[in-house]
């Protein structure tokens, strides 16, 4: 017997909280997971990040980016459909999130770092599809709204954030798990910078694209990527983000199979 936890929201008694019938979609997805045959990623735990992080400047303003979360969400959906236990860590997104094993909402690069670090050790693979801010305000967010009248010209000093993937690569050292997959959003030259990132951050696969190319980038349903691994460079045609997710997971399955014993057994 499997239980679907109660949903949260307005309750018949007038209170807000957990205790109402779960949404039909949640029940259907839970039933689907029970009924599906063992998938090609059954027994594996995957950590997927999605969306763009937000660095607050004051209570009303922030520095963000144009990531919609579509690519990360497509990866989480496809991984779950293949039987993986998926943990989705989502920053700011403009698409609906799938009901996977665990969904963690974060805001800043720091929160993304903490959420990923706490869970990566138990994962077979980490796919960093999120657009994580490289810089954050050095003094943190102002407690009160920054007043225009107090500044003729405003300079905000930014300091680098921790590179989460690079830290995971360092922490993993020579161990085979977790498999580390990064994304490289480029403008212009794609393959060489992606290969540099693969080596510098000690990754297994980089999904690289030119965000300015037609059919690729942030606000579109399609993407055109090059898959860069240690052994191969594989340019792909324009295709839907769901199709890209399928091919990325195919390569991930190859990488997982190369080291036979999964860290998390079914
Ligand atoms: N990333 C990360 N932690 C950060 C920044 C990025 O883990 N603080 C991850 C992203 O999720 C993505 C990859 O690293 O998978 C992107 O690499 P990065 O070198 O940050 O790309 P760019 O920001 O495009 O780098 P550059 O500006 O040097 O091209």
Describe the global form. globular
Structural class: alpha/beta
DSSP summary, beta strand count: 16
Strand order of the largest sheet: 7-6-3-8-11-12-14-15
What pattern of helices and strands is seen along the backbone? EEHEEEHEEHEEEHEHEEEEEH
Number of helices: 6
**Small ligands present:** cytidine-5'-triphosphate
Major sheet size, sense and barrel closure: 8 strands, mixed
Can you tell me the residue ranges where pLDDT is under 50 for at least 5 consecutive residues? 262-266
**Radius of gyration from the alpha-carbon trace, in angstroms:** 20 Å
Verbal overview:
With 266 residues, the protein is an alpha/beta fold. An eight-stranded mixed β-sheet has the order 7-6-3-8-11-12-14-15, with helices on both faces. Strands 1-2 form a two-stranded antiparallel ribbon. Strands 4-5 form a two-stranded antiparallel sheet. The C terminus is likely disordered. The structure holds cytidine-5'-triphosphate. The site of cytidine-5'-triphosphate has 14 residues, from α4 and β11.
């Amino acid at each position: 017997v499997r239980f679907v936890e109660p949903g949260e929201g307005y309750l018949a008694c007038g209170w807000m909280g957990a205790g109402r019938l779960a949404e039909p979609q949640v029940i259907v997805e839970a039933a689907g997971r029970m009924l599906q045959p063992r998938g090609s990623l059954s027994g594996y735990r995957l950590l997927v990040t999605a969306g763009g992080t937000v660095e607050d400047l004051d209570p009303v303003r922030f520095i963000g980016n144009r990531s919609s979360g579509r690519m990360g969400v497509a990866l989480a959906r496809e991984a779950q459909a293949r039987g993986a236990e998926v943990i989705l860590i989502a920053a700011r997104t403009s698409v609906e999130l799938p009901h996977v094993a665990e969904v963690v909402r974060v805001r800043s690069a720091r929160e993304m770092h903490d959420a990923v670090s706490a869970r990566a050790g138990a994962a077979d693979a980490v796919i960093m599809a999120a657009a994580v801010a490289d810089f954050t305000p050095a003094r943190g967010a102002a407690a009160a709204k920054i007043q225009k009248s107090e500044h003729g010209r405003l300079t905000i000093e930014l300091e680098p954030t921790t590179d989460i993937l690079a830290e995971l690569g360092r922490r993993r050292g020579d161990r085979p798990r977790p498999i580390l997959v990064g994304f490289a959003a480029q403008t212009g030259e794609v393959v060489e910078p992606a290969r540099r990132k693969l080596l510098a951050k000690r990754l297994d696969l980089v999904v690289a694209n030119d965000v300015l190319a037609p059919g690729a980038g942030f606000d579109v349903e399609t993407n055109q990527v090059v898959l860069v691994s240690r052994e191969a460079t594989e340019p792909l045609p324009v295709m839907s983000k769901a199709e890209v997710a399928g091919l990325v997971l195919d390569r991930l399955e190859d990488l997982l199979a190369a080291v036979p014993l999964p860290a998390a057994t079914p």
